[in-house]
């Protein structure tokens, strides 16, 4: 009975780099119901992939700026009519909804799953208790919805250890597992790739520090610029890749600090090009800071950097310590502390052997714990044993 198939739904898997984890599962046992089009920073159109059973539906909401203020993010109402057909044709046993328990989308999917006699699994990244993020009527409504979704669910995949603690505080008996929704492509993100980025960015004879991600307040890049101003190796270069609301402020700060000749800003870059850029760098830095009841929930960029055998400097906040092992694969400092960040940069910039040693330890750690193959094994074991 437990060998029957799983229906997978949820807007995160509209992204090809998240979906790739399923290339490591038994494709015959998985059916996918995903948005035909997903509108975020980029517009993603669903494509058929050989060997996969993929069904596209229209999404009614894409998040905060659309229907019902984000509570219906990723909602595919058509699943109500599609599910009877899938139930009859494939006889699945489980519906896995990759959506947070504080969403009405998750509630809708749970009710549909139970109506058709399916086991139900959901996913959560949330590593900050609701009491620390909300208050008043919003807190009460959110807790009610989360408890209801946990009551409907037969299992919860938690993207980090703190998320599991929160789930268990609300439902002590529910089955849980800890792993991210997808893994890292360790065959693409690996050391030793040939790259022309040093020539293109004129980085020869310069130790290079790299960041990529969203240029918003949560990433702490203003702190990084302050730290970079005072590092001992004044010939080092900082490459910042990404887009976001803080981009212009960060460029202005760079000019005010007199760092114009040492900091290089690159606009958004396709994920496929990042491995070569990572192989150009000496250190990856990700100075995440807590903002408005949010803290870093995983950090794929850090895991990708480690997979390329780069040492990582980040902060002691959120769930970063699950991705970066302090003094083993990198250095973790207090958030919002430019002096501590500068000292960490100095330590690694001055010691090539340490950079290489921690970098290789980081790759081993990511391959063993966060590769697509490893996450696919955990995902399969969890869903087929609900």
Automatic annotation (TrEMBL):
Any matching Pfam family: Glycos_transf_1
Domain named Glycosyl transferase family: residues: 201-362
Coiled-coil ranges per UniProt: none
InterPro entries, alphabetized: Glyco_trans_1
Source taxon at top rank: Bacteria
GO molecular function, one term: glycosyltransferase activity
Gene3D superfamilies to which the protein is assigned, alphabetical: Glycogen Phosphorylase B
Alphabetically ordered keywords of this record: Glycosyltransferase, Transferase
Family as reported in the entry's similarity comment: Belongs to the glycosyltransferase group 1 family. Glycosyltransferase 4 subfamily.
PANTHER family: COLANIC ACID BIOSYNTHESIS GLYCOSYLTRANSFERASE WCAL-RELATED, GLYCOSYLTRANSFERASE
Protein's UniProt name: Glycosyl transferase family 1 domain-containing protein
Species name: Candidatus Yanofskybacteria bacterium RIFCSPHIGHO2_12_FULL_45_19b
């Amino acid at each position: 009975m437990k060998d029957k198939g799983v229906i997978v739904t949820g807007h995160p898997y509209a992204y090809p780099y998240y979906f790739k984890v399923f290339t490591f599962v038994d494709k015959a046992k998985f059916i996918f119901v995903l948005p035909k089009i997903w509108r975020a920073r980029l517009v993603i159109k669903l494509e058929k992939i050989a060997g996969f059973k993929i069904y596209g539906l229209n999404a009614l909401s894409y998040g905060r700026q659309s229907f019902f203020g984000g509570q219906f993010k990723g909602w595919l109402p058509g699943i109500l009519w599609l599910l009877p057909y899938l139930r009859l044709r494939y006889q699945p046993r489980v519906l896995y909804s990759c959506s947070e328990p504080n969403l009405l989308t998750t509630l809708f999917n749970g009710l549909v799953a139970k109506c058709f006699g399916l086991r139900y699994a959901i996913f959560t990244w949330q590593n900050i208790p609701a009491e620390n993020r909300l208050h008043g009527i919003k807190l009460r409504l959110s807790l009610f919805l989360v408890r209801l979704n946990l009551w409907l669910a037969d299992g919860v995949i938690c993207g980090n250890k703190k998320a599991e603690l929160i789930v268990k505080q609300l439902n002590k008996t529910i089955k849980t597992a800890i792993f991210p929704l997808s893994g890292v492509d360790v065959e693409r993100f690996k050391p030793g790739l040939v790259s022309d980025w040093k020539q293109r960015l004129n980085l020869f004879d310069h130790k290079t520090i790299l960041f990529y991600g969203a240029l918003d307040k949560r990433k702490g890049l203003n702190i990084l610029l302050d730290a970079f101003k005072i590092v001992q190796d004044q010939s080092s270069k900082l490459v910042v890749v990404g887009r976001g609301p803080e981009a212009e402020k960060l460029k202005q700060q760079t000019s005010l600090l007199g760092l114009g000749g040492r900091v290089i800003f690159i606009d958004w870059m396709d994920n496929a090009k990042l491995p070569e850029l990572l192989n150009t760098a000496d250190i990856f830095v990700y100075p995440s800071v807590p903002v408005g009841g949010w803290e870093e929930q995983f950090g794929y960029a850090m895991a990708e950097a480690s997979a390329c055998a780069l040492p990582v400097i980040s902060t002691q906040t959120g769930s970063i310590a699950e991705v970066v092992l302090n003094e083993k694969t990198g250095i973790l400092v207090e958030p919002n502390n430019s002096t501590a960040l500068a000292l960490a940069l100095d330590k690694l910039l001055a010691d090539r052997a340490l950079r290489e040693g921690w970098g290789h330890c980081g790759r081993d750690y990511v391959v063993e714990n966060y590769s697509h193959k490893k996450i696919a094994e955990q995902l399969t074991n969890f869903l087929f044993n609900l």
